Amino acid sequence: MKRKITSIAFMLVLLFSFASTSFAASSGPGTGNHTWAPVQAHGNIYIEGNFINDGQISLGVNFRLYRVTPNGDVLVGSNWTNTIVAGQTARLKIPLASNQPDGQYRLVLDSPGDFTVIAYLGYN
Question: Whose CA is closest to 65, among 13, 23, 15?
C-alpha cells in the first residue's frame, strides 16, 4: 500500500512537472462520477494520462466535457476509453472536443468500476 501511494505521488509530481497544459489530477478509486474543477482551455481539448483499472471486472471510463457559462454548464463533447482489463493500466490520449472557444471547461469522469486516473486535461 505504501509503495502504491508513493508511486501515485511520484506520478503526480511528474505530471505537474511535464504537463504543458493547465491541469493534472487524480480521481478514484471509486464508483460513479468524478467531477474535475474547471480549467481554462480552447481549441482541440483532450484528456491524456494513465487509467488504472483497480477493480475485478474489465471496464472502461466515460468522459463528458462541459463549457462553464453564466447560464449553466453546456455539454460540448464526450468520449470513452476502450475496455481496460481488470488490474491493468492504459496510457491514453482521448479527444473530447474540437475547435472550442477560449473559456472554462469542466470534465466529468464516469465508470461503474473502480479506476484510478492520473491525467491532465490538455488542448492544442
Answer: 23
Helix/strand/coil for 99: strand
* Chain centroid to CA 114: 14
As a whole number of angstroms, the distance between CA 39 and CA 37 comes to 7
**Distance (Å, rounded) from C-alpha 54 to C-alpha 42?**
32
Model confidence at 32, pLDDT cuts 50, 70, 90, reads low
Dihedral sign computed on CA atoms, order 41, 7, 2, 59: positive
User: Would you say the pTM of this structure is higher than 0.90?
Assistant: no
Question: Which residue, among 21, 35, 32, has the nearest Cα to 93 in the 3D structure?
Answer: 21
